[in-house]
Amino acid sequence: MTDAGATWTDERVELLKKLWTDGLSASQIAAELGNVTRNAVIGKVHRLGLSGRAKDVKPVSAAPRARKVTRAPSAPAPIAPPAHSNVVLAPISLQPAPQAPVEMIEEDDVAIPMSERVTIMDLRESMCRWPMGDPTKPEFRFCGARSITGLPYCTHHARIAYQPVADRKRERKLARA
């Protein structure tokens, strides 16, 4: 068995630090150093505590941020059962549903209070697994609301996660235009 630490000389560690701060990926650094894998580079970066490199940091403005406004769903999205399920779906009408006027709702109106959000340790099978926040921050939580039987999300988050195929195709066409 070879000694894993033998390849990390002081010179190679310094070169690793320089390439990492220059923004090279772990694969690129491994190729540059030679005789070391991408995973070895990632492990060394974490052991050295270099994982927090800055990427295009934008200055924080003192002006208050505008509230994000999202479009209310025109109709609840049909929720497909998991592929391994025995659930039989009712036939879907091919008649287009009458379109209600587009209503704007604020994201804060459907926000889950922090007291109801749960950590990974508190998450249970019947709870919504919708991630909320930045996973690298200590405030990261999951929705925690009651999930739909057989699905990982509550009704609100299932509407977001499971969109009808027609809506996805329309969004792709709009994105190309």
Report on the architecture of this protein:
- This protein is mainly alpha-helical and 177 residues long.
- Among the domains are: 7-48; 109-166, no CATH class.
- The protein has helices spanning 10-21, 26-33, 38-48, 155-161, 165-176, and strands at residues 69-71, 104-106, 131-132, 141-142.
- A two-stranded antiparallel ribbon has the order 1-2. Strands 3-4 form a two-stranded antiparallel ribbon.
- A hairpin with an 8-residue loop joins strand 3 and strand 4.
- The radius of gyration is 24 Å and the shape is elongated.
- The N and C termini lie far apart (58 Å).
What oligomeric state do the depicted chains represent?
Answer: single chain
Strand order of the largest sheet: 1-2
Please report the distance between the alpha carbons of the first and last residues. Answer: 58 Å
Envelope shape: elongated
Number of helices: 5
Q: What's the mean pLDDT score?
A: 73
Structural class comes to mainly alpha
Order of helices and strands: HHHEEEEHH
Strand content: 5-15%
Helix content: 25-40%
